[in-house]
Amino acid sequence: MNPTQNNPVGVIGLGLLGSALAERLVGAGFEVRVWNRSREKAAELLKLGAKWSDNPLAECSRVVVCLYTTEVVEQVLQTMVPAMQPGGTIVDCTTGDPVGSARLGERLAGQGVGYLESPIAASSEQTRRGQALAIVGGPREVFDAQQDIFAAIAGQTHYVGGWGAAAKVKLVNNLILGLNRAVLAEGLVFAERVGLDPRTTLEVLRQGNAYSGVMDTKGAKMVDGDFAVQARLSQHAKDIRIVLDQASQHGARLPLTELHLELLALGERLGFGEDDNSSIIRAVQHAAAQSEAIGS
């Protein structure tokens, strides 16, 4: 299906990632109808050609949703879904709770609305550049019908199974990615403490067997103290709390992730929650200078 003005696509939630997704859709030629609780966040998208809608589900047969949690998605959709025509599809890019995502999918199916969970494995800047990975769960036939949307918003797309599967894969992804960031932060703090130049150390690390992709995306930000937001530290802390809740429900302890959350919580207490998640290095720096445990 080719994007046309007769087939607008809605976007609900214009935070960092939601705005990037909307930009991708506008750039791909879709007519895009946007909604956000605070309308001012739509200003730049309206300049690019998107249109405001008080309820995109009433105007669009396909709507991309990108909100803070699954609970927020449920709250927002509760008032909007009744206006959607049967046969419509919601593509939910929220990083959320697997159980809640499956429950939402079942409820929407009962209302004649298709639902795909499609959390995005990328920062807002990577998404804007077309480098996002969309991880998709839900009915295969619904996924197959949305290939033009996924081609617009993501560089790669992986279908991983039914409702809940994509949410689980995204949580695994964020667990590993977050630990990579935390380890890089600690390594750079250690390098500086023992008298090394962090920038030179980072250059060496990028060429060796300790390399990881976060050195490219977050290394320079950590070294330069540039915490302009691509993805917020508090957002990642939210995701890690979901990870630990899921682990607890399945009878598992994740000791490294527990320590990671302590660092993230420290960053929030120090006032860095709204900064980029690379600001975890400031929590590590603070902890390195303290004699007490970071969780105290």
Please characterize this protein's 3D structure.
The chain folds into two domains: 155 residues, NAD(P)-binding Rossmann-like Domain (Rossmann fold); 121 residues, N-(1-d-carboxylethyl)-l-norvaline Dehydrogenase, domain 2, CATH 1.10.1040.10. Helix 9 packs across helix 14 and helix 13 runs antiparallel to helix 14. With 296 residues, it is of the alpha/beta class. It is 51% helix and 12% strand. The model has no long low-confidence stretch (mean pLDDT 95). Strands 3-2-1-4-5-6 form a six-stranded parallel beta sheet, with helices on both faces. Strands 7-8-9 form a three-stranded mixed beta sheet, sandwiched between helices.
- What is the CATH class designation of the largest domain? Alpha Beta
How many domains would you count in the coordinates?
Answer: 2
For the biggest sheet, the summary is:
6 strands, parallel
The rough form would be described as: globular
pLDDT average, as an integer?
95
Q: How many individual helices?
A: 15
Helical content stands at 40-55%
Rg estimate, integer Å: 20 Å
CATH architecture assignment of the largest domain: 3-Layer(aba) Sandwich
> What name does the CATH topology of the largest domain carry?
Rossmann fold
Structural class: alpha/beta
Weakly predicted, low-confidence segments: none
Into which percentage range does the β-strand content fall?
5-15%
String of helices and strands: EHEHEHEHEHEEHEHHEHHHHHHH
Number of strands: 9
CATH superfamily of the largest domain: NAD(P)-binding Rossmann-like Domain
Q: Tell me the distance between the termini.
A: 56 Å
Q: Strand order of the main beta sheet, please?
A: 3-2-1-4-5-6
Assembly category: single chain
